[in-house]
Write a structure and sequence with these properties.
Elements (H helix, E strand, L loop, with lengths): L14 H17 L3 H7 L4 H8 L7 H10 L5 H19 L6 E2 L5 H10 L2 E6 L10 H11 L7 H14 L10 E7 H5 L5 H14 L5 E6 L13 E5 L8 E5 L4 E4 L2 H15 L5 H14 L1
Parallel strand pairs: 2-3, 3-4
Antiparallel strand pairs: 1-7, 2-5, 5-6, 6-7
Helix pairs in contact: 1-4, 1-5, 2-3, 4-5, 7-8, 10-12
């Protein structure tokens, strides 16, 4: 896969734009306002409101603030969340090429926003338990290990742990996130936080595997080489039929985003080929339980 080649048909993702537009549409409907009335409130045309609500255009902070006030949305947290979505969407639209490198801390809000808008996530993990399945103690130990020179403030570490735990609510809400996780056996044997922490984490995996919206499979050591052996990644999918999958992959120093249809499809193919080498869900659970008893 040549990461220096930019496809001619590249365009920035509008996933966050559609999410933001949908939020504004719900606020307008709840307030009983028409698109024309909304347009007049920001001195614009009705066409602009249509484009905003469908996520076709980047949105200015002043327009969002005026519309929220016009719709009677006075909760500062609600308004702040919409402004943050607008900022992230503008940044993604300005991204050049089909991939973008950013320092890890700056991409956290962006990833969470995409995950929150997603209908399905497929994740391949080489050495770590997927974030959506982590216990608080496992996550804390992991953040401390990763955080030398980055996450050293105890309050900041706890905030990151809390954020990771809140993300897991998507597994249990009215429209639960569909998660297909494939992990290498190494991720189950790596003693993050020590034996007690790891044992509790493996018990958590056994519980998560029971959820109807979760498919958890393990690639055993004996499977040998496979297409995804070089590193972890997550494929984020959305309910809209026209939405292109977004691929998120961490490296040591940066984060890579893949938003091109052909390249996203390639990651999906690699994921499926590796999944075929993994144990069936039932056998994966048996292996997890065996490792738990050995830990």
């Amino acid at each position: 896969m040549n990461r220096s080649t930019q496809p001619a048909n590249n365009r920035a993702s509008t996933v966050l734009g559609r999410k933001l537009g949908g939020e504004l549409l719900r606020l307008r409907d709840a307030a009983g306002k028409t698109q024309q009335q909304a347009a007049e409130s920001i001195s614009a045309t009705g066409t602009k409101i249509v484009k905003m609500e469908r996520g076709w255009v980047p949105m200015r902070d002043p327009d969002i603030r005026v519309l929220c006030e016009f719709y009677g949305a006075e909760d500062t947290k609600v308004v702040g969340r919409l402004l943050e979505l607008a900022k992230l969407d503008r940044e993604r639209r300005k991204a050049k090429g089909w991939w973008q490198h950013s320092p890890h801390p700056g991409t956290l809000s962006e990833y969470i926003a995409l995950e929150d808008a997603a209908s399905r996530v497929r994740t391949w993990q080489v050495s770590l338990v997927p974030g959506l399945f982590q216990t608080a103690e496992y996550a804390r130990s992991l953040i401390v290990t990763e955080g030398v020179g980055v996450w050293e403030d105890p309050d900041e570490i706890e905030r990151l742990v809390e954020i990771r735990m809140r993300r897991q609510a998507r597994l249990h809400d009215e429209r639960p996130l569909q998660v297909y996780a494939v992990v290498w056996e190494a991720a189950l044997r790596q003693l993050i936080g020590g034996p007690n922490t790891m044992r509790a984490q493996l018990e958590q995996l056994l519980e998560v595997a029971k959820l109807p919206n979760v498919r958890l499979q393990v690639v055993p050591y004996r499977a040998g080489g496979h297409p995804c052996i070089s590193g972890p990644f997550t494929i984020i999918s959305f309910a809209e039929t026209e939405a292109v999958d977004v691929v998120h992959a961490d490296t040591i120093a940066s984060t890579v985003w893949v938003e091109n249809e052909a390249e996203s499809a390639a990651f999906s193919m690699f994921f499926e080929r590796t999944a075929r080498l993994s144990l069936a869900p039932h056998d994966s659970v048996l292996l997890i339980d065996t490792i738990r008893q050995e830990t």
